[in-house]
Structures are given as structure tokens and as C-alpha cells.
């Protein structure tokens, strides 16, 4: 059997670490998980962890980035299936609210990420993912005359905040239907025609 290349070993180790950390962070939260548990679950040494990541926070960032990439790909698929801007936005919001009810998304993405990474780092990652999707959709709606705004970036940030807040409300016991209807009413207020 041929030996694996250094790149393959690196990819394998990083994959084992992020998979183990993701499961543990989702189950118990960042603060309740030790690096010893992560390396044990990943089947690697502590030295391997610190060879690939500066610390547990850097590993968490990688896990969060991976999770955000998956969420964004799922939302992009929903948007691609709809040619009408309003239908796409409605479908995207519905899917996002569904996604946010997944325990790992709620724990890692919505609860721990802002606290663990800090607001600036969390926003930097979000800008490449969820915020990018919203910004692109709003820019297209503005170009088509469907939405008027002096600033697409500012409006996109506010929309993202409203959608995240709705997801958190639902996750913390608010009735989904009236919460989603209120969010839809808010977002429809942006439509000019």
C-alpha cells in the first residue's frame, strides 16, 4: 500500500479534528468541551491538534466556517430554484429558519460563535456566507426596482439580524408561525412594488 502524502495526512488529521470537535461542540457547547476530549474523539495526539491549530478557538473557527459554508450552500440552492425575487426570499427565509432549528446550528452558529470568536471575527465569517447571500439577493432586487434603499450593505445587515433574531426566538420557544409571519411582514415592507 502506498504511503499517503503529507497533504493527505494533513487533510485527514484536520478532518478528524473538525468532525470530532463539531460533534462535541454541538452536543455540549464550546465551553464544556476540553481539548483532551477532542483529540481523544478524533483519534489523534494533542501535538497533532496544536500542529494544525493554535488553540481550541482556532479549531472552533474552522468548525464554524465549515458549518456556515454548508448553510450557505443550502440557501444558495433554494435561491437558485426560484427565478422570482420575492419567492426566492420567502423560500430562503423559510429554509434558514428550518436550518437554525438544527441543534448544531443553534449551538455552534447562533449561540457560541459570537461569544467564542467575538463580534468582529463572527461578522467577518458571516460576511462571506449568510450576509453575502442576502446582499446579493437585495442587490438584484434593487437592480430590478423591487426594493429601494440608500445602502444595500446596511439593509442586508439589518435583514440578517432580523432573520437571526427570529431563528433564536423560535429556538427559544416562540411559536414559529406567528414569528415567521411577523418576519415576513417586516421583509415585505421593503418591497416598493
TrEMBL record:
GO molecular function: DNA-binding transcription factor activity; transcription cis-regulatory region binding
Transcription in keyword set: yes
Feature: DNA-binding region: 34-53
Name used for this protein in its record: AcrR family transcriptional regulator
Keyword hit for Transcription: yes
Span of domain HTH tetR-type: 11-71
GO process terms (BP): negative regulation of DNA-templated transcription
Record key words, sorted: DNA-binding, Transcription, Transcription regulation
Signal sequence region: none
InterPro entries from the UniProt entry: Homeodomain-like_sf, HTH-type_TetR-like_transc_reg, HTH_TetR, Rv0078-like_C
Superkingdom per UniProt: Bacteria
The species this protein was found in: Kutzneria kofuensis
Amino acid at each position: 500500500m502506498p504511503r499517503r502524502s503529507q497533504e493527505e495526512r494533513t487533510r485527514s488529521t484536520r478532518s478528524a479534528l473538525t468532525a470530532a470537535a463539531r460533534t462535541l461542540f454541538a452536543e455540549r457547547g464550546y465551553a464544556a468541551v476540553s481539548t483532551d476530549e477532542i483529540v481523544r474523539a478524533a483519534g489523534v495526539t494533542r501535538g497533532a491538534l496544536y500542529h494544525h491549530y493554535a488553540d481550541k478557538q482556532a479549531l472552533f473557527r474552522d468548525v464554524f466556517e465549515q458549518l456556515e459554508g454548508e448553510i450557505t450552500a443550502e440557501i444558495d440552492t433554494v435561491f437558485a430554484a426560484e427565478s422570482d425575487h420575492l419567492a426566492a426570499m420567502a423560500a430562503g427565509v423559510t429554509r434558514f429558519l428550518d436550518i437554525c432549528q438544527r441543534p448544531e446550528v443553534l449551538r455552534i452558529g447562533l449561540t457560541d460563535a459570537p461569544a467564542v470568536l467575538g463580534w468582529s471575527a463572527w461578522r467577518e465569517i458571516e460576511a462571506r456566507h449568510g450576509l453575502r447571500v442576502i446582499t446579493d439577493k437585495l442587490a438584484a432586487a434593487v437592480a430590478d426596482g423591487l426594493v429601494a434603499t440608500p445602502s444595500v450593505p446596511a439593509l442586508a445587515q439589518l435583514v440578517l439580524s432580523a432573520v437571526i433574531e427570529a431563528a433564536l426566538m423560535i429556538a427559544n420557544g416562540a411559536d414559529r408561525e406567528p414569528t415567521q409571519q411577523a418576519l415576513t411582514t417586516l421583509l415585505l415592507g421593503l418591497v416598493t412594488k
